[in-house]
Amino acid sequence: MFGMRVRIALAEKGLKYEQREEDLRNKSPLLLETNPVHKKIPVLIHNGKPICESLIIVEYIDEVWKDESPLLPSDPYQRAQARFWADYVDKKVFTLGRMVWRTKGEEQETITKEYLECLKVLEGELGDKSYFGGEKFGFVDVALMPFYIWFYAYETLGNFTWAKRCMEKESVSSSLPDRHQVYEFLLEFKKLNGIE
Amino acid sequence: MAEEVKLFGAWGSPYSRRIELALKLKGLQFEYIEEDLYNKSPALLKYNPVHKKVPVLVHNGKPVAESLVILEYIDETWKHNPFLPTDPYEKAKARFWARFIDEKFWPAAKKAMASREREREEAIEEAQQHLKTLESELKEKKIFGRESLGFVDIAAHLLVWLVVAQEAFGVEILTEEKFPAVHELYRRLADEAVFKECMPPKEQLIAYLKEAIEETRPHLKALESGLKERKFVGGESLGFVELAANVIKFPTVHEWYQRFADDAVFKECAPPRSDSLPIIKLYLEPPASK
Fold it and tell me: Interface pTM (ipTM) of the complex?
């Protein structure tokens, strides 16, 4: 999920990179060495130096390759807004979204309501713009896009136009797995965890 | 152009104080607006409709929320005395450690304060694990040990709050013996004039922390409204000793407590604290507002 953000950012900048798939149940020594604190993916290694945490990595990429397709605006206030909304995606969309899958019955209903509220807030923020970044695809779009694959699985509202627009970008469509595959995966996950 | 900088904050909030700290480090003039977190002003709700929290910085009428976002905004708008390094890799590291302190360390520390017995032991363990991580980072790489105070130091100000909270709750998480490097950082920050200015008076803070961190608060609120509607459950089990400090906020509960607490028979029949808290949670509606 978070790895996708990095892939999108790298693709936006037109960068060539080596990708290593990790088995999260059997983490490689390299992963543990480069991210000893969290032991999580994604980790970007640039000229031997590791950077961790997806949004931090995306900002890093944006700063190092700043001449190509900037993801963050240059104005400090706009940047603050972008960072605020990316943080909102992490704090709300991600946290609530995954709970929708892990609960059932009344609890799931309550959480789903909250989750949809959050998506409404995001929709409000998007407004008439083509992207969260305005006319151009930006930081918040990168932050949110991977969660689009969850949207299909529980048919949400209006975000589809924005999402379709993002999917038209080569950098995005090449970085995300097929929605149907994810849907199947999530169904399996539920079965395995006894969530009906 | 006249710069208008306003900070909506709360004297007992470390995140709010952190922004004060940042503004002071930049030598900026600002208007401070104290918020009563139980009675938030329309202005705050207007400027931070999404989270409705402090701190919120309003610069020339435009609001910025979330403390780390605000810190970066301040750093990018007023470029002297920079908090963040210019090198992207060093910047990424600084952001990483600030996040670590905020998202891993501090919640674990708060949990240790708020919980009891076994849960508390586990929470202390977790918080100390995070301190160990900080300890080795400080020893090996000295990212904090620069001449000027930076982004991570501002975030690490939480260590000063931690030490006060430790005293308030009688918990030991950060000790000099176990974590000499972190402790040294704490000392450096605690002694720094600007950081000192941004700490509330110790006794006041201790009282406030007990109120803010202890989990009893949401249940007390529920009990307050429950009692008003003549629903109640008995016992010393809510730790009513703490209530003594909260008379003004919970007058009905306090009055009710006074009626029962001294009754010998009642005391005999009251269930132990750990048993009744879950029952109380079941009986009472959670507070309507979040």
Answer: 0.85
